[in-house]
Specification:
The protein is extended. The strands form 3 sheets. It has a 7-stranded mixed barrel. Strands 3-11 form a two-stranded antiparallel ribbon. A two-stranded antiparallel sheet has the order 4-5. With 302 residues, it is α+β, with helices and mostly antiparallel strands. The protein is built from 6 helices and 11 strands. The longest helix has 22 residues, at 266-287. The chain has a domain at 1-23 and 73-170 and 250-290: Ku70, Chain: A, Domain 2 (Beta Barrel), CATH 2.40.290. The protein has helices at residues 77-82, 120-133, 190-203, 215-229, 255-264, 266-287, and strands spanning 4-12, 15-23, 46-47, 63-68, 71-75, 90-98, 107-115, 135-143, 146-155, 158-164, 300-301. Strand 9 and strand 10 form a beta hairpin. Homodimer. Interacts with LigD. This is Non-homologous end joining protein Ku. InterPro entries: DNA_bd_Ku70/Ku80 (IPR006164), Prok_Ku (IPR009187), SPOC-like_C_dom_sf (IPR016194). Residues 231-251, 265-302 are annotated as: Disordered.
Length: 302
């Protein structure tokens, strides 16, 4: 069973839908460890001072931002906590937009939203409403002390919470040497275009993602299995898993009452909330100006 990484509620008008958040990704990556070939022991990495070569204890480590070459601003845990977003347990939808209007480049990481028992009816209502209208609910959510912009939409029987990249996180194509669509010298002839579109038509099929597999991983696992069956296994180090927490229970919501009260609040409050979100995005974009790259990592020694 996938592990819930977050528990809270969806705020849909005055309707509150208790949900848990589960990653929709499943990356079966093959994990490798660095091992000493002499005695098969795991390699331990040390925190080494780049100037003195001495190992640095944990209690002396602080974070630093390199604003100029060799010049750092040191930030303590208290400094970082003072600017962290409030740890809320709510996904408050501030506005709805057409799902097809969201640039796919902004899609970052998908999550499944699973309702608690008392929120199943409200969950189904929001899911079907989003499916019927083709809309996505725009909201902000705090996961592990970091705030994310997100879009909520329906897929099959699930509500998907897609974390979004901010526009300033997308690199501009103007810095790339791309052939201009207005360059007459590069404009394809009618014959070339006809042949290209004909080839595309002949190769067009129905999209079926199940037909595609990670062939490299399969070949690597086959190779590893052969080594295992050949008796080449060495001792392994197992690590404990984290414990799970129990789900909460409650009463079923009276949806009609909450929806009527939501409508009575009027469009003014919803417009103000959406305006605050847009202003926050613009403010974040203005603060994102940086002349230097993040601080370089210290050299590590095995």
């Amino acid at each position: 069973m996938p592990r819930n990484i977050w528990k809270g509620a969806i705020a849909f008008g005055l309707v509150n839908i208790p949900v848990s958040l589960t990653s929709a990704e499943s990356k079966p990556d093959i994990q490798f460890h660095m091992v000493d070939s002499k005695n098969h022991a795991r390699i331990r990495y040390e925190r080494v001072n780049a100037d003195t070569g001495e190992e640095v204890p944990w209690d002396r480590l602080v974070k630093g931002y390199e604003h100029e070459d060799g010049q750092f601003i040191l930030l303590s845990d208290e400094d970082l906590e003072s600017v962290q977003p409030s740890l809320t347990k709510s996904i408050e939808i501030t506005e709805f937009v057409s799902l097809e209007d969201i640039d796919p480049l902004l899609f970052d990481k998908p999550y499944y939203l699973e309702p608690e028992k008392r929120g199943r009816k409200a969950y189904a209502l929001l899911r079907e409403a989003l499916r019927k209208t083709g809309k996505a609910g725009i909201s902000r959510v705090v996961i592990r002390t970091r705030e994310y912009l997100s879009a909520m939409f329906a897929r099959d029987d699930a509500l998907i919470l897609m974390l979004l990249r901010f526009p300033q996180e997308i690199r501009e194509t103007s810095k790339l040497e791309l052939p201009s669509s207005s360059d007459s010298a590069l404009k394809p002839t009618a014959k070339e275009m006809g042949l290209a579109t004909k080839l595309i038509d002949e190769m067009t099929g129905k999209w079926d993602p199940d037909e595609y597999h990670d062939e490299y991983r399969g070949a690597l696992m086959d190779f590893i299995e052969k080594k295992i069956s050949g008796g080449e296994t060495v001792d392994d180090v197992k690590q404990p898993d984290d414990d799970e927490t129990d789900d909460s229970k409650g009463k079923v919501l009276d949806l009609a009452d909450y929806l009527e009260r939501s409508f009575k609040k009027g469009s003014s409050s919803r417009t103000a909330s959406a305006s605050q979100t847009k202003k926050a995005v613009k403010k974040a974009a203005r603060k994102h100006v940086s002349k230097k790259a993040p601080a370089k990592k210290s050299r590590r020694s095995a």
